[in-house]
Task: structure prediction
Amino acid sequence: MYKESEIREPLILNNKSLHDITNDIAAPIEGTANKWWWGLFLFSLMTFLWGAGCLAYTVGTGIGVWGLNKTVGWAWDITNFVWWVGIGHAGTLISAVLLLFRQKWRLSINRSAEAMTIFAVVQAGLFPLFHMGRPWLAYFVFPLPNTYGSLWVNFNSPLLWDVFAISTYLTVSLVFWYMGLIPDFAMIRDRAVKPISKKIYGILSFGWSGRAKHWQRFEELSLVLAGLATPLVLSVHTIVSMDFATSVIPGWHTTIFPPYFVAGAIFSGFAMVQTLLLVMRKVVNMESYITIKHIEYMNIVIMVTGSIVGVAYITELFIAWYSGVEYEQYAFLNRATGPYWWAYWSMMTCNVFSPQLMWFKKLRTNIAFTFFISIVVNIGMWFERFVIIVTSLHRDYLPSSWSMFSPTFVDIGFFVGTIGFFFVLFLLYAKTFPVIAQAELKTIVKSSGSQYKK
Amino acid sequence: MIKKKKYFKSLDQLKENSVVSKIHEKEFIEKLPNDLLSMNNTSKSDSTHTRRDFLKMVGFTTAAASLAACEAPVKNIIPYVVKPEEIVPGIANWYASSFYDGHDFASLLVKTREGRPIFLKSNDKCSLGGVSARVQASVLNLYDNNRLKNPKKNGKTISWKKLDEEIIFKLKKIKNENRKIVLLSSSIISPTTNEIINQFKKEYNSSHVVYDPVSSSGILDANKIMFGLRKLPTYRFDLSETIVSFDADFLGDWIDSGHGRDYAKNRNPENKTMSTHFQFESILSLTGANADFRSPIKASKIGEALVNLYNIIALKSNNKIYDVNRSPNQEMLTKAANSLWKNRGKSIIVSGINDVNIQLIVNKINQILGNYDKTINLSNFSNLKQGDDNDLLNLLEDLRENKVGAIINLDVNPVYNLSSAKDFQKYLKNVELKISISEKMDETASLMDYVCPKNNYLESWGDCNPYSGIFTLIQPTINKLFNTRQLESILMKWSKLGLDYYSYLKSFWKKNILGDKSWNTTLHDGFLNNPNDYKKLLELSQSEVSDIFGKNGNSVSIDSSIKKVLLNNNQNSIDLILYSKTAIGSGKFANNPWLQELPDPISKTTWDNYLTISPRFAKELGLSNENTSNGALNGDVVSIKSNNISLEVPVLIQPGQAYSTLGLAIGYGRKGIGDAAENVGVNAYVFMKNFNSYQIVDEIKKINNKTHEFACTQLHHTMMGRDNIVKETLLSNYLKNPKSGNPELFLETHEGPQKPKNITLWNEHDRDVHWWNLSIDLSKCIGCGACVIACHSENNVPVVGKEEIRKSRDMHWLRIDRYYSSDMNENIAESQGKSTIRKFLDMEVPSKSENLEVVFQPVMCQHCNHAPCETVCPVAATTHSREGLNHMTYNRCIGTRYCANNCPYKVRRFNWFNYSENDKFDFNMNNDLGKMVLNPDVTVRGRGVMEKCSMCIQNIQKAKLEAKKQNRKLSDGEVDCACETACDTGALVFGDVLNKKSKIYSETKNPRSYHLLEELNTKPSVWYQTKVRNK
Result:
């Protein structure tokens, strides 16, 4: 009996030829920006400048312009830091982990996901730097040789581990991303007609000629970097979580934090990728490459990680009750029913309930709904960090010091500014970089002629 | 400037292309663009400068300007040309002195550095009075930028010489016209000042009126009636087994700041016995907060309660009984009466109500109980309050009738602190010569013709006779900062005694007080005890003294007093109690930012006065307090009317306050005495009719749509069922088991229950040199806040102002936590089947019952030996010392605040802004004068760094170096923390626990000792001792 297995749905729709792919991906770079791009860019730029103004005000006057107080020493600053780092997780996961697992669907989204990662980590880095009372002395955190003999950094401090973890992550991500860009830059270079852009893309493409030796090196380095980056996916947010987990504050001092934070990071990272790509595929006509299939896959990742996060939340509550520690019990009760109950329940609704809707195929393949949920998840994940940081700090051990936190316009301005900065970078990227790894994507173009079977 | 004319030196030079001109050109290859330098408007064609020159110049000037800007301001330290013999830079000098401002008295040691007084502490040799928070803070008044700096006439500066001439001329004229010359002052306890005033009186035929804004006239008059001696007794709370107080805040602000020390002596459970303290009061005072039994009582009902108490005692002692209604507090009164009766002769009953009838009944009860000459000592009387309210009323009458020709204010402020200030102000216009001798251009001084600036007491000589037979000296510790004179010199000058008060003082003492004692020794010691001659002299003058030992007091009837007291018993009135706060007191020091920022011990509110009201009464009137989104407290505003005067005041809901009674602090609402006091609170003196702190409110009305912003340092008021924060027990339980209330803590592990200290990941630190520990006895701590101010002064702690306090950003290194008891606890919740959520919500509410209990707990850096802050700092700015201290290296700190977050005690303080030299924080650290109070041994922290208690490491270091120089070991008691020296009650003990003979070592072995949050195993170096109540 002759049995033919069911034909898989192709990852690239509309029978694109290799030339079509080249044309499609080079189009936004070679064409002129439309008014949507300009509008969005100028708006982002203005928010960015507003944020920069708030930052200048902070550095010039003092951290006191934020809403912090003697009890709540971190609030929006570290919330935003963890949020952005979390967002920066999807890129490496998609490019490195999925590469190792030979998941070909990653090819149409990895470029943008990595770009998002890098831009998000840049935003994230701003917060630990400028939350310092004296940012001009930030270099103290590096183990620099000095004339003071034994004066050295404190290797016990999770904040120092952060410095290393984040900087390593940024470096590896940046190299990985850039390496993938080289053949694509070469493609743009080859098509460029204007001498300046030819020159620039020529420099950027490092003299790529597409020789077999180049491709061999490219493949090898991809694997090596993927191998290096994979542990980083786990380590970065594990270390970020240790800022809290190694402390003594009830609500922070929790051993579940590393896996819980990593899951949350992937959760929020994928949500951000969704948000960006859903817009981008429309604006730069990439519907053939970023298909419903891709969206569905990512939604499944969101659903799974969202469930892990949900389990973590419930485990936390259970352990608080089971531990019998009155401070721990109160901390969690206070999260859910105290003055910040609204933050806790926003988090719960956004992160635990909303992704469960993805069990329905109809919903997870619906673009509008996916876009909505991706925004909701990112709001929820922001609240998760806010809940962990602020509700744990504001009522800890001695009730005499209990206090509340309320952001000032500077807190808000700085945060909104980083969103602006992020979009400025991303829009510039979308205009000048090949947004899909076309060289690699071309390897999965079907040439079997199966379309003729229909 | 280019000159059109060219002068030539030779003919060759004039010729073109001559040799000379060629050589000349080579000499200066390019001409300097002179025209650019000049502002001359030469035409462009004439200009010889090029575009390049312009750029060069711009470049050069920009670079030069920016280079010049880069240079740090140069501050020179100028060495002494001739070094004063007694000053060694870096070494403090201590001088014995005394403090008296008409309100508080204390014998002091003044610490000076390089000739600047910077710190005050109690003169332990005599321990007279008490160095309260206010006295501690008085050192800052010296450096108040708003002090009067020159003599003034009608607001314009005038020389002393001219002023003296004019005043003497005018005084003579008024004297010759036979019109009254009045000296107005508060109580004066200086024998020489009194002598000088007598001279002045003789010279000008003047009279002297004494009044105290916070008056004790009632007690004085009652004693006059009963014993023939118009004096205050000394109260011996240390000898009293039962203490009953009716609205007397004797630990707070009542008569003598030394009461706390005496009181604490008999509050030590280690003695196996403790006094029992009953407090019947309408507002929750510091004293009430410390009482074993406290009964809130409506102010107008206090008389009735007192008569009831009298009746019970009279019944036991077969004295006359009076008809009176049963008091609502009868049960507690009976208990108190039984306790009083049981401890006859070892008990004490006091009342803070300034009413002669109440005080007569109080005297009578004390007399029946035989307390006179035992716990209440009139033979060893106190001079601290002498004012006579009637004298002032008579003066007002004289002023009204235009009989007064001249009025001389001796450092009093009637325009501010008289209820009839408006009348006073009106009559003042008729007085021909108005003079104020004052440190400030205060409310009264600003209305005077002449204002004579007075020295601060730290710039003055002086003497005090606070108690009979005890004399102390005041010596200057700094040269006069401004063109001022001391009060005595001013009066001496006008009385033709010259200006040299010092010689006058010395010769007066030699003649009258010193006897065979040496002046220098007395000055060194600061006091002189029991100089018999003078005592006899003084006692002889009191010839009418009938019965100071209280033996024959029965002869004085209290029938009419009881009648009058019961007449005042108003059933439905709303009462107003005008109280004075521990920090601001009578308001004289209202411009002291340290005091303004010292939270009220009970309400924990700073920079304000407000109407305190019981929760129930507030609810009935529809008044509320609410927390804003950043936690800060907002309160409704009401308008109250009493004696036809209306004021708008914010309302603060105060648990433990009696229903239908309102409390309002005096001392606020100052005008024109400085920026710190300006616009802070309202002046409550306007209500204080007849110097009576108890008044009736005619009307109280909520003002809609108006809220007041409070600045509180503590927003949460109960312990939330966490009973191991402040551990408590009862004396009876403690006697049975010294560890009661403080059981050994065990944590469950897989190896069975373990003590927390046995479960650890960390290695122990080496402890081989010293190990500094601090212990705090919660039984002795009365919560007064003197330690907070001492810490401020010693460690240059910045003042941040109301707005920042509202944002919970106080900088106090040492704070005093105050918790109220709650009606909800674990057991009640279980028995009532309350849900956990409900339980915690109920726990947040302070007890509504009569049994509201209050505890105080001073908290500073605990100097953990396994410190959570140390592990998290990325740059190792906070580290552990070999001597058990948690160090903070400001230079290394980058300000991540991680340490503060991870501190379970929340004692770390962050410099959110620059608090010094910043116009937004215009307190003492923003002007050169105010900065003189800074301790040169302690860094002033810049913005962006963390700071916290260092256990006064500068003092440790100093003592260690001293010992090293002498090649010996440090002995116990050589090192002290500022808070420890400030604590009059001896609640704080500091020392080296490696010294097995030290006091601190024995404290750590005390069965009452425990660590705060012991289960966290942070191994603090600070110990607390269980609070023991005698119930």
Notes: Chain B touches chain A through 64 residues (CB under 8 Å). The first strand of chain B starts at residue 92 and ends at 100. Residues 51-70 of chain B form the longest helix (20 residues). The radius of gyration of chain B is 33 Å.
